[in-house]
Write a structure and sequence with these properties.
alpha/beta, Elongation Factor Tu (Ef-tu), domain 3, Rossmann fold, 2 domains, 18% helix
């Protein structure tokens, strides 16, 4: 869970299509086992820059979406020159990676169920979180007489997307209820509508969320009003990834600032008066 503070040149194992998204798979046999919610700074080994002189881009921060057998997975969406270049990668090419970095999610306490709420490309850290929670509770194994399925705490997943092509990203997680802005898939409306329904049925939960800032602010507000613990994975522009540049700060409740890269990206919602517009996943 501790980063190796030197970037590593890694081989791309593959690039999978997932509707409007891509899943970059990178072989990382010497990497540290990441905690759910941690991220890595990525840059391609070649053609990482713009203009006639290919002036280098800054590395891009991506949540680690899955970790399997020494292979790290990252969920990408082409939203600019850096992400476009990363989406072009194919098996056999090389990528620079620094990570895992930052603070991850912590498990629910006091017998609370885990309620995962994601939006758009921000669903990425919830995938590895679901893996970890189900592994800890035994949900990734077939029920036995000693651990019947009815006694295992549930992991509930709610995901929101702009449209049908993006909603295909829901397959990154298991058993998700889906909302789409245009009604193409699932509930026609916001994922926070589904959250409100879930909390009406059972408020003894801990909410874990990542997505665009308006969604995160709505989740924070709903949970604050009902006194429900929530952990929010924020996203902000980063130049370094380890707290030196102060480019990713957000105001802390009561004064001062939090650096998303080292104090987060996962931050207890109680630490925030609001989620600022620059602190969410791209829409």
């Amino acid at each position: 869970m501790t980063a190796l503070f030197a970037r590593r040149l890694l081989r791309v194992a593959g690039m999978d299509e997932l509707g409007a998204y891509r899943v970059l798979r990178v072989t990382d046999p010497e990497g540290s086992n990441p905690a759910p919610g941690q991220f890595a700074m990525l840059a391609t080994a070649e053609h990482w820059g713009g203009g006639k002189d290919e002036r280098p881009y800054l590395p891009r921060a991506f949540s680690i979406a899955r970790w399997q057998d020494g292979e790290a997975h990252y969920l990408l969406e082409d939203v600019g020159p850096g992400t476009q270049r990363l989406c072009e990668l194919r098996a056999g090419e090389d990528v620079w990676a620094l990570g895992p970095l930052g603070q991850g999610f912590t498990a629910p306490r006091d017998g609370r169920r885990a309620l995962l709420v994601g939006g758009g490309v921000g669903i990425a850290p919830l995938a590895i979180l679901q893996d970890e929670l189900e592994r800890e509770t035994g949900l990734d194994r077939a029920p036995t007489d000693s651990t019947p399925a009815a006694t295992v705490p549930a992991v509930t997943v709610l995901l929101g997307f702009r449209d049908g092509p993006r909603a295909q990203g829901a397959t990154l997680l298991r058993g998700a209820r889906v909302a789409t802005d245009d009604g193409a898939v699932g509930h026609h409306g916001l994922v926070t509508d589904l959250l409100a329904q879930e909390l009406e049925q059972d408020a003894h939960t801990t909410v874990y969320s990542c997505g665009p800032s308006p969604m995160l602010e709505a989740v924070r507000s709903i949970c604050a009003t009902q006194g429900i613990p929530a952990q929010l994975a924020l996203e902000a522009g980063m130049a370094c990834g380890f707290g030196a540049c102060y480019g990713c700060v957000v105001p802390r409740r009561g004064g001062g600032y939090l650096r998303v890269c080292v104090d987060g990206p996962v931050i207890d919602a109680a630490e925030l008066d609001q989620v600022e517009a620059h602190a969410g996943a791209p829409v």
